[in-house]
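In response to reviewer comment 3 from the previous cycle, which asked for concrete evidence that the modeling workflow produces usable outputs, we include below a single protein chain processed end to end. The sequence was submitted unchanged, and the resulting structure tokens are shown without manual editing.
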Amino acid sequence: MDIVTLAQVITSVTNLLFVIVLAVGYYFTWRVSQTTLEEMRAQRTAMGRPLVIVQEDYESLPELDVAIRNVSEGAARDIEFEFSVPIESSNAFVVSDLPYFKYGLDFLPPNGEITCYWDELDSLLPFLEAKDLRNGIHVTVR
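The workflow returned the following structure tokens.
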């Protein structure tokens, strides 16, 4: 066997080893990514279904706010709202026509909250009684 043939054989063997090392590396990278994906799915399922609520917020009385809260440990996605009657303030501003109520929210993080001003309590109560809303406004969240 001459030196040229030996060099060609060695080059072919090293190229083959290089391809094998790359293939093994890609395989292990794929396996790690699959394991990570399974862990993420298990974690999301363990947190349970997201629970999003819409309620009045009395923290800054006499001002009254409307709050959207995700009270679960999982992220809420593609949230839509449906109101039994529009949420109006005493000056006829329709709070339920705000974009995040009207078009929904794409995402609300775990324990996330969005609040917006509704009205002053002293002017809102007579307004709601005049509209005969003593039983409240029902909101369906999907």
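The chain has a mean pLDDT of 89. We consider this sufficient to address the reviewer's concern, and the full set will be provided in the supplementary archive.
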